Amino acid sequence: MSRRIQVLPDSLTNQIAAGEVVERPASVVKELIENSLDAAATRITVSIANGGRTEIRVADDGCGMNRDDALLSLDRHATSKIVSIDDLRAIRSFGFRGEALPSIASVSRLTLETAESGDVGTRVRVTAGKILGVEDCARQRGTTVSVRNLFVNVPARAKFLRSAAVETRAVTDVVIALALSNLTTAFSLSSNGRLLLELPATPDLVSRIASLWGDDVASRLIPISHTAPGISVAGLVERPDASLTGPRRVHLFVRGRPFRDRELVWAAERAYRTTVPHGARPSLLLYLQVGEGDVDVNVHPSKAEVRFRDRSQVEQSVESAVRGALGRVDSAATLDRYPAPPQLLRSTPRPDAAADGGITSQLAFFVPASEPTPPASAGDGEPRPDADGVPGGETAPPLPTTRPLLWQIHDSYILAATRSGLLIIDQHSAHERVLFEALMRAFDEGGQPSQRLLFPLTLRFSPGEYAAVEANRELLERAGFEIEPFGGRTVIVHAAPTPHPYFDAERCLREVLTDLASGSELTRAAHNQFERLAMTFACKAAIKAGQPLGPAELELLFERLFATELPYHDVHGRPTVIRLSLHELERRFGRHG
Length: 593
Ligand SMILES: Nc1ncnc2c1ncn2[C@@H]1O[C@H](COP(=O)(O)OP(=O)(O)OP(=O)(O)O)[C@@H](O)[C@H]1O
Ligand SMILES: [Mg+2]
Prior knowledge:
Blueprint: H1 10-21, H2 25-38, E1 43-49, E2 55-60, H3 67-72, H4 85-89, H5 100-106, E3 109-115, E4 120-127, E5 130-138, E6 142-148, H6 155-159, H7 164-180, E7 186-191, E8 194-199, H8 205-213, H9 215-219, E9 221-228, E10 231-238, E11 250-254, E12 257-259, H10 262-271, E13 284-290, E14 295-296, E15 307-308, H11 311-326, E16 333-334, H12 342-345, H13 359-362, E17 406-409, E18 413-418, E19 421-426, H14 427-444, E20 451-460, H15 463-478, E21 482-485, E22 490-496, H16 505-518, H17 521-525, H18 529-541, H19 551-561, E23 577-581, H20 582-588
Parallel strand pairs: 1-7, 11-13, 16-23
Antiparallel strand pairs: 1-2, 2-6, 3-4, 3-6, 4-5, 7-8, 9-10, 10-13, 11-12, 14-15, 17-18, 18-19, 19-23, 20-22, 21-22
Helix pairs in contact: 1-5, 2-7, 10-11, 14-18, 14-19, 15-16, 16-18
Bound molecules: adenosine-5'-triphosphate and magnesium ion.
The site of magnesium ion (MG) has 5 residues, from helix 2.
């Protein structure tokens, strides 16, 4: 009886594996660089020709291989990186399958030159999976793999390759991703003899970013950090005010490996809510550390995705890390040419790195030295009757004894001298943030205080506005508007909130309803009905530009602003504060630097 089932020859299984591992030149570059990193290279030189189609060369100064290992490395499932399944759980190397080299060799002309030390090494030449020759060669410690004529024997694959420019871009992206997670290795990339990237080894992420994309990009990013049991998240994310221009860059790493994960990106984006306008796409560089066994890296053929044991914890940690950073002063818009002095931004993506790179010390001004609470939590969390807004009634607990000097200009902006420079506060935006957070808190706690009107207002609305009254009646009530339908499209307003003494309840209510009825840009940015109403209310009820404020009112607004979670951003994604550092003033007046 003849058998129908047969075991495939190695040459064929390698080609099949190559179908998954080697999709395009960029995948070859990724596998070769990862091997170099696993070999502890301190310098990796990549060169490609014609988008990698005609040649890819990756040279390193890593541990190299002796002749036996060099030959074995081209066999399928030959790896030096794991011996048991337990090793895979705790994997620290990029490689573990023993598939990359034989797969690449099966679809190209590959030359491997390698030496463990000194002058003599081994050269192995392979074409379409067949070893054509093994010989001695002169070389230094390390390994160079050149891959020519990729897909020479798989024309169907070759057809899927895009233009040289597109493939070069994909190769560049791969080098960038690995360079962002291996700072102490120097990288270079050239294409057709032209140098595209030259990245010296560095201990810190910001200087690597500066070598990749320039100082300007580096200065738009702020450090993030969050640690919870079993997980830490560090990295850099874009300042909200900077996220509206320039290309977006997103890089995720877990235990040093680049990976893709749309939902984690969304988690980070959720943290930006109310600080950026609808549709803004901030750059994100997130470095996750989780325990061994809490992430499975063996779930995707080219290792582009991973699986977390506790996904929701990871998402929450990412969100908290980003949210925390957006409440700090370095997330504020700035007039400085290089926003934070370099030492504030230097932070390596390690969980044990200082949490905020010294940013808290900048804030010390707002809190007396004896007071341990940071300003972001200086509020007591209670909505305060008649003191949600600028002036009026009982004020909050005594704040800093050392208050900054406040000065209102053009009846619209407040200048505040701080220890490290100057803050320019937009009184309307600042009050908007204060009212938004107060109302969101009030929604949780039953409602916002209101005042009965001596003369109730009788208001008639358009059909759209009236529909908005009906749809939001309960929320409006919790916001302090006591509304009674009066037949037709008329209502009587018996009570209204009192965010400040210059408040015009009728005008505010009408504007809120117009916005809710028409679905403004602002209401689209909201994540739910509470946010929608709180944003609209805050925007319409906040103190206006052009309103003169007395010293006590300025102080109260200042104090309220810095008791919010995100004092530096209004709910439209505009800044509430623009800062100018003493450092920058000194620079501009030629005092130094
Ligand atoms: N640049 C290099 N320097 C030193 N040794 C190398 C280098 N490249 C490959 N090797 C050796 O060859 C072996 C096979 O490499 P290959 O990339 O095929 O598999 P791997 O890295 O073990 O696993 P994976 O298929 O997951 O990448 C490696 O385990 C390593 O021992
Ligand atoms: Mg490998």
